[in-house]
Amino acid sequence: MGSPNHPTGAQHAPGAASTRAPSSRATSSAPRADHDGHQTALAASLLSARLDRLPATRSIWVFVVLLSLGFFFEMYDLLFTGYIAPGIVKSGLLSSTTPGLFGNNGVAGFIAALFSGLFIGTIACGFLADRFGRRAVFTGSLLWYTVANVIMAFQDTAFGLNLWRFIAGIGIGVELVTIGTYIAELVPKQIRGRAFACEQAVGFTAVPCAAILTYLLSDVRFLGLEGWRWVVLIGAHGALFIWWIRRHLPESPRWLALKGRHEEAERIVADLERRVEAEYGKPLPPPLPPEPVGERKRFRDIWKGVYRKRTTMLVICHVFQTVGYFGFANWLPTLLISHGVTVTKSLGYSSIIAVAAPIGPMIGLWLGDRFERKSMIVFMAGAAMVCGLLFSQVTSSMPLILTGVLITLAGNMMSFNLHAYQTELYPTAIRAQAVGFVYSWSRFSAIFTAFAISAILHGFGVVGVFVFIAVAMLIVMLVIGLMGPKTRDIALEKISH
Description:
Helix content: over 70%
Order of helices and strands: HHHHHHHHEEHHHHHHHHHHH
Strand content: under 5%
Oligomer: single chain
Structural class: mainly alpha
Strand order of the largest sheet: 1-2
Number of strands: 2
CATH class: Mainly Alpha
């Protein structure tokens, strides 16, 4: 905000105003607005420079871990779909195949309901975090999908099951967009890659948890509820605990500064500096020269200038990476059954493969900031493509498990790099909304991917499914490799300026 001691136009002589046209009030508002905008941008850039120079001490990593614990339950909720599907089929609520192309009574309809909600949550609600703040939307969306899942667990019709899965998907979609934005803005630039690796490492431990729980509860009936319903309820109640922890998280200082709430932003950064300095044991390094924040952006700017290329690249990438990632993750037990593995053994194999889910991001804690993120995305997409084709050719247990583990590792290493990468490519003022827009295309793609894989599996078997996945991964490699900018160890403001 402009200082009241130095109003715009104060340098003019006292009589200067009398010579202006009657419309001077209207014309003077533009310089004042420009001045206020400049002051806001300057304050934001100075705060960002102070954040980026902070050493990665305990306080910084506590924020990352708290956010990562929230991501655990998001991933649990997102990825238990494939594991509980056989149990829902066994209970008679859904069929394993889909009657008609877009039938709602099959597993594909259940998966599509989730991704339809995710699509709405990311494309239509991404603006919420940019308007109301990262912290408020972070907690609100968590409560939204927790309530929806509790209700879903008690449904006894395919329609009710899909409806509440759709509603839960909206909340998860908003949460997925917000958490990446939140992390990118809270941590110093030199650990952004490792911060996202930590988030995904903690989050992906939910995969073996969901798989093993489903395996253990698959034949259980307790208090009149089948095992798959308990898998859903356990995740929902755990999320309430994480909501309590999140009360200790600060709002993003970068967002506060751009909203003109300078005192709040200053208070958060100053408090963090004091704690980090105490943990560091010596004076903090001086901030680097601040990067200019640039002019205030609006959502439509994602189709202008340098952002047009980035938006096009990410939309294409998300449409096709979903085919490979969720095509395998959500269909793993079903693909194993199509390989001739029994239902019980398929859940056992899936549980073993799922244990590898957090290992990829754990490796990323070491590699996260050593290599360009675009290069890692390209390499891991290629690895997933090759391992998927190998998976389609083997039939015995050990090769199936080994190739399944390699696909999981490659997919999850690609995932944490892509989540970090997309948050780096847009300015703070529209980051959540822009990321929500491009990310929504992965959810839109997943709606139809579920039906496409169901049809391909029926007509061409497991080999056909993985040829489909391989083509999608090749497109991801090409679009990121040819169109993606470099971002490693570069200030957010410089990347987006």
